[in-house]
Amino acid sequence: MRAFRKTALVVAAFVLLAVSMGVIARIAHAQVPDVRFVATPPEVVDAMLTAARVTSADTVYDLGSGDGRIVIAAAQKYGARGVGIEINPLLVAESNASARAAGVSHLVQFIQGDLFTADIRAATVVTLYLSPSINERLKPRLLRELRPGARIVSHVYDMLGWTADQRVDVDGRWVFLWTVPPKK
User: What is the pTM (predicted TM-score) of this model?
Assistant: First the structure.
């Protein structure tokens, strides 16, 4: 019983400390991701960047960038600039560390933010590994904000009602490519 009281006192002290530091308030207002992070396999990353015909003239945006591997690969392999938008601050920190370790931190940046509100107008290529419903929510924004000719590449999930320019099968994993059409 004595050990239980001691544990309860320690827990109560931590709760009081957290409240006094505003930690609980920050947790209550933290953004919750719409999709949990699942890493894109390296062979799919390669297929996505190849399908999009990435070059050093491109700026690749990865919406929901997770550990940053797509943006980092675009910088390493093609010399492209890149921006990762990720809601999870721990993944943003991991991505920045990985970019430094890969020697491409001068080409890429990772931003903690919401992929629905982040400024994506500078993108020439947008990569996605989200979900069908998130892709559908993003589609009007992508068509409205991206310049004609910008390429959008999605791992696994199609965009309903928008015929892909290219579909690539990577060992049973689909990669879809669309090109933003001229504005009407």
Answer: 0.80
